[in-house]
Amino acid sequence: MKKKYNLAFLFLALFLFAQNGFCQTELSKNEYGSLIQNWLQKNKGDYNLTQNDISDLQVSNAFFSKKTKINHVYVNQAYQGVPIFNAVSSVSVKDNYVFYYANAFHSNIAAKINTITPTISAQEAIASTAAEYNLGALGNVSELDSKNNEYTFSKGSISNSDIPVKLVYQLTEGGELKLAWDLSIDALSGQNWYSVRVDATNGEVINMNDWVISCNFGEFGHTDHSGHSKTSNAFSLFKAENAMAADGSQYNVFALPLESPNHGPIQLITDPANLNASPYGWHDINGNDGPEYTITRGNNVWAYEDANGNDTPGVSPNGTATLNFNFSLNLNQEPVGYQDVATTNLFYINNMMHDIWYQYGFDEASGNFQQNNYGNSGNGNDYVIAQSQDGSGLNNANFATPTDGLNPRMQMYLWQPSSLGTPLTINSGGTLLGDVTAATPSTAAGADGPGNITGPSTTPVTANLALVNDSSAAPTEGCNPLTNASDLAGKIAVVLRGNCNFTQKIQNAQDAGAVGVIVVNHNNPTNDPAYVQYVNMYGVTNPAFTIPSIFINNADGIQLINALQNGDVINGTIVESPVYFKDGSLDNSIVTHEYGHGISSRLAGGALNSGCLNTREQMGEGWSDWFALMVTMKASDTPEMGRGIATYSNGQGVNGQGIRPAKYSTDFAVNDYTYADSNDNTQIGTDQQGTPIYWNDIPHNIGFLWGTILWDLTWKYIEKYGFDADLYNGTGGNNKAMQLVLDGLKMQPCNNIGFVEGRDAILAADNALTGGEDQCLIWEVFAARGVGVNASQGSVFSISDQTADFNTPPDTDPSLANCTTLSVDEFNTKSAFSIHPNPANNVIYISTKKNLGDVNISLIDINGRVVLSKKATLLNEAELNISTLQSGMYILNVTGNNVNINTKIIKN
Asked: Which residues form the signal peptide (predicted)?
């Protein structure tokens, strides 16, 4: 049944929000202000804080989490009423006591303040920012509102949104707290949303982070694989009893858990909206029955094409009054031909991410993305603006996350073909047969325009091949008029690259009567990539050529040359072989990754602190990868199999590595990265100014390390609790991991975010959710990847001072008192088998990854008695029925020629 809200209730909610909501207020005015102040007073010495450091505190955000029963209060340190930028500590209050505290306060602040009086105005700070980032003339930037050193200015000619400015203190790398103007400008290009601190004494920009997170997906080129276009019907990822908002809507999409067109067929799904998260469906905004929009727009997202790349709403597919978005898909064309499908898929995935993660606490109170919050707390009017086939870039995607109440923006780009076509087919003769990869004047990267070199057409040119000869010292390069014209007439000429322009070679071949030209790259390993994207076949002649030309690499071409020199008769065909752009909106791993940036940016440090993830060690890319992996998991997956990110758009197959340093896998033979690698300062290139770039300078590499740990953690939870494909109501290990990580995000502080803080927040979340049942499991996973008990994340300003540690706490540590399970064996070796579920009620399954042969399986109680025993052959899976046993802990012993392992088992 749909939720109903009357106007009086809505008015009351809005009134309470205005009074007690997310504006900066004194800590004393918060419900838990006195409790928190007293706790800080008692514990300030543990954090090297003075009385003055905690005497002026403000609340930037506060909300209640239903699953943990925690009131999250985000407390901002201030000096004489001016907040210190991102000095926001996370305080978790449960059962009227401080359950967890994550510190981001600075010590001895009074000695670090440079001044209390600004000497430049807020509007001058805007001008300084515009000049710093070349945003153009200000235009009519005028003050719209002001209160207590907080201002709102019009957007003028430099911003897509009004410009908020307020006075803050900014910590510098030298430890000084400088008075600064904090402002944000949504650049007209749509590529940057600058969050800037401008020195209030001299107008210098001293700190900036970009709310637009550009993920640089397209930095790697890979082999192309064609996708699927077949349609199937009535797919559902979730349990049949899951409550859905039935409005009859239909969407032809790559339905989760499908990752992309490479991973399975497009599917027609009906009524996918979740009643709990989207009580009036995906096309509502007013809270009454019936959709307000019949296009790909609603309460959670507005998806449209932005082919012009100017952030102006383009076409949104129209499902008509029946909300039927069943558009047909043919991938064998440029993406503009299936634009409606791409935008519909983008709309679908954004809504699915909204609805799925709503179940785990990314709701209105915590700052999710909705136009209408339907009477719940938090700021509305911030649905996702999702732009498909965005024309402002290629081979990438980005997500901009402003603070709660402002619209986030997702931009999905087209992707250039990552491999060339096969315009040459060798029909017979020689050793090279079949389709041959080749570059053409239209596909060669760096081509300077159309020129007059003609590529293949749709009309096939089939003929025998002939090697050119100009009787020079390099006869096969064809730089001079050819002396074997009689051999070339009516043939496809084969010519070696070198010593003259392409146009000269092709002209000589055409003059000799050739009907086509194959240019073979010279034998230079540094200039002969496996796919020759970098050749430039540009050239101008008068008149233009009338025969087609292609360019192949040396490895293939030398086979043709040798065969022709041996007298073989080789027949070939040159014909147009188009390779089309791909559309990132069909790559669910990218769309979900981008949406994940919105989740982590809103949850870390509170929904009004979108810039909390701006330290060198912040793990945003890792969370986003993990979000993508979690919603595309299947029951058939295994922990060791390895998962790549963005394989479809990057032209890889389903087993491709993706764009990370390794696949995500628990198997150290596949992915052996640990926290120690965060200090890797191997130079991998330079920026445009020639400044060296090191491996650990790349946020995606640091994020990959964090994502690896979260992926390991997920599989340990699945090993213990099993897998549940129902992402709304499931109780499996994957569901528990999703809840744990989201609650951990909420418990982290602002700015002081790194792997150790992230680990501690996850441990605290487990304590809040279960009383600490899985502390041992969590510690083992983190320790195995180097974030053990003695690990240190160092300074927030450095990415080379981390300390890895591979030790778990001692068994006497009181935090481990409630542990109920340990891992099967050492996590940094490939496990011989996994046991699930654990705890269990009736049956335990022992799953193997290889044939371990005949084994003895015994279950031993805490008194050392064998209570169950059986022989089995461990090939795939064995089961042990424990239904007759009493509840409690047991030791499972598995022995054989290839295995001898003990592990704890809990009988519910």
From this structure: 1-18
